[in-house]
Structures are given as C-alpha cells and as structure tokens.
C-alpha cells in the first residue's frame, strides 16, 4: 500500500521556531509552582540561560478600536463656567444626569515577548476559568506584532493549533517534575 503524503509542508517562522524550542526547554526545566511571580522569574532565568532576551510584561500596541474619543465631562465644565463655580470639589459631585464613563484602552500585556513576535503567557492554577485564559490569548492574537502564542501553564487544557490565525503552542509546567 502506498503512503499518502501528509499534506503540504510549510516552513516555520522565527516565532514558531522560538515556541518549539521553548516548549522543549520548559519540558526539561523544573519551575516552581508555588506562585505565578516565582514561576515567571524562573522562566525568565531559563530563557536568558538559553540566550533569549524577552521583554518582560511588554505592552502590545493599541488596536485601532481601542482608542476612544474623549467623551468630555458631560457639560460639567460649561455649567461651572456659566455659574462661576470654580474647580470641582472631589468630595462633591455635580449631577447633570447620568455619568459618562470614558472607556479605557485595553492593556494587552503578555508576560514575555520575544523580538521574533512570540507572545508568552504564564498561568498557574487560578480562580480564572480556562475560557478566560483562552480569551486573553485571543486578544493577544489580534495584535499585528504577535506572530505566535505560547501558553506556559500547569492547567490541564488544550489549545487549538491556531488562535486568531496565529500559531498557538502549549508548554506543561509539570513535565519536568515527572
């Protein structure tokens, strides 16, 4: 019986090559599972020991829809000017109807970001659901500068091969402890 080809081969980009190498690195490195900050520090040491120079808590560029126009103060400054009320007292609210909230831009900040475009997120078992972690990765994938995603975690969860069109990788923190 003839073997069927597996499909078209594609070359991995720099971010994907970094992800594959880091998954192997994490699989052989015992990382503290006591808390997320300690795990991040040990992962940073392992990455630097393997000659990676990640940006720590790199703020991803704002997405086009994130920049909100200034909503103003709902007319409060105009009323204060007309009636000569002076600057607002922080302890007294001037009520002019319903308050206007100014939406803030999202702050998508992966734990580590490599120059190749690999966004690395570290998650230990938390109260956050697995779906929250997945949605966070989806937000990162929406950024043009992100070329691939890597979740390093002790959560037992699967990831699709791509998230938002970006290759997604998973590294289990417990593997080196077995």
CATH class of one domain: Alpha Beta
Poorly predicted parts: 97-104
Residues in β-strands, percent: 5-15%
Number of strands: 6
Please give the share of residues in helix: 25-40%
Order of helices and strands: HHEHEEHEEE
CATH topology of one domain: Endonuclease, Chain A
Radius of gyration: 23 Å
The termini sit apart by 40 Å
**Coarse structural class:** alpha/beta
Main sheet attributes: strand count, strand direction, barrel closure: 6 strands, mixed
Please explain how this structure is put together:
This protein has 178 residues and is α/β, with parallel strands linked by helices. 26% of the residues lie in helices and 14% in strands. It is built from four helices and six strands, in the order ααβαββαβββ. The protein has helices at residues 14-27, 36-49, 76-82, 130-141; strands at residues 55-56, 112-113, 118-123, 148-153, 162-163, 166-172. Strands 1-2-3-4-6-5 form a six-stranded mixed sheet.
């Amino acid at each position: 019986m003839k073997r069927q080809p597996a499909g078209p081969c594609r070359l991995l980009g720099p971010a994907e090559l970094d992800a594959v190498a880091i998954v192997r690195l994490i699989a052989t490195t015992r990382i503290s599972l006591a808390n997320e900050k300690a795990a991040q520090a040990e992962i940073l040491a392992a990455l630097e020991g393997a000659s990676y120079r990640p940006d720590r808590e790199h703020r991803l560029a704002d997405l086009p829809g994130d920049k909100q126009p200034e909503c103003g103060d709902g007319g409060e400054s105009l009323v204060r000017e007309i009636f000569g009320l002076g600057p607002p007292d922080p302890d007294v609210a001037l009520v002019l109807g319903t308050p206007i909230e100014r939406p803030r831009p999202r702050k998508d900040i992966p734990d580590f970001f490599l120059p190749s475009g690999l966004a690395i997120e570290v998650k230990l078992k938390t109260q956050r659901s697995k779906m929250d972690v997945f949605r966070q990765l989806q937000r990162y994938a929406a950024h043009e500068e992100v070329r691939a995603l890597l979740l390093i975690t002790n959560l037992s969860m699967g990831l699709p091969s791509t998230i938002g069109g970006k290759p997604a990788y998973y590294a289990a923190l417990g593997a080196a402890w077995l």
